[in-house]
């Protein structure tokens, strides 16, 4: 199972030929899409997963840390909440444990050792991907659960973005490259390993805030609508 999922780092002139046509992956995405065919949010979530794992972004993330960060942001902050919104939740429960687990998983896989192992071994790669999406699904299902107090949900959405922003800041201001997996490939793309890492940190620090802001607005609007119905 050694090797890089989606193949070796691509060169700039071949990136648009590097689609991932793994039949198991594509079959799984099609099955998930069929199961969620009546839910638009779920369908959008599966489409985001296709962008992450099937499109050339998958191959590009073998080359550039910044592309890998975009991959992870789409996974945990876009696909996960879309799919989680389709999952049943019979009780609200606490958000604290799902938040702690999702945060721990995200930070663990951005430590240099686990990160480099995941990019060099397909089994560990999928352990990374499944633990990221699984913990994010649990977190967002807790946040978006029916009956959740909007204030509680908004607090944890802000905390989730804050911890991602903190990780992004640490990566942006790190004085040297941290990831051996991206020691050479960024040079082919006109980046040094350090500038690629800094770009990845900025992606995690700034643009990643957009999906969290959108979800905060959604929760606030839902809470306001419930309040108005209760007052009617």
Walkthrough of the structure:
The protein has 232 residues and is mainly alpha-helical. The chain has one domain (12-231). 69% of the residues lie in helices and 0% in strands. The N and C termini lie far apart (60 Å). The mean pLDDT is 93.
List keywords for this structure.
single chain; 232 residues; 11 helices; 69% helix; globular
Low-confidence stretches: none
**How many DSSP helices?**
11
* Order of H and E elements: HHHHHHHHHHH
The count of strands amounts to 0
Globally, the shape reads globular
Radius of gyration: 18 Å
Intertermini distance: 60 Å
Estimate the helix proportion, in percent: 55-70%
| Percent strand | under 5%
Roughly what is the average pLDDT, rounded to an integer?
93
Which structural category fits the helices and strands?
A: mainly alpha
- Biggest sheet architecture: none
Count of folded domains: 1
């Amino acid at each position: 199972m050694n090797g890089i999922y989606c193949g070796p780092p691509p060169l700039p002139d071949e990136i648009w030929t590097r689609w991932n046509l793994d039949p198991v992956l594509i079959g799984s995405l099609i099955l998930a899409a069929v199961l969620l065919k009546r839910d638009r949010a779920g369908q959008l979530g599966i489409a985001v997963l296709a962008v992450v794992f099937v499109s050339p972004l998958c191959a590009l993330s073998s080359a550039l840390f910044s592309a890998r960060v975009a991959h992870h942001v789409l996974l945990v902050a876009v696909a996960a909440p879309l799919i989680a919104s389709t999952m049943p939740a019979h009780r609200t429960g606490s958000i604290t444990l799902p938040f702690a687990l999702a945060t721990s998983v995200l930070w663990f896989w951005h430590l240099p050792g686990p990160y480099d192992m995941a990019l060099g071994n397909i089994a560990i790669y999928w352990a990374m991907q499944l633990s990221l999406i699984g913990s994010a699904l649990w977190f967002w299902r807790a946040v978006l659960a029916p009956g959740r107090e909007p204030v509680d949900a908004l607090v944890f959405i802000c905390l989730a973005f804050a911890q991602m922003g903190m990780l992004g800041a640490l990566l942006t201001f790190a004085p040297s490259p941290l990831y051996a997996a991206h020691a050479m490939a960024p040079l082919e793309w006109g980046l040094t390993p350090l500038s690629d890492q800094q770009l990845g940190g900025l992606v995690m620090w700034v643009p990643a805030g957009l999906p969290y802001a959108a979800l905060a607005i959604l929760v606030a609007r839902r809470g306001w609508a419930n309040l108005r119905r209760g007052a009617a």
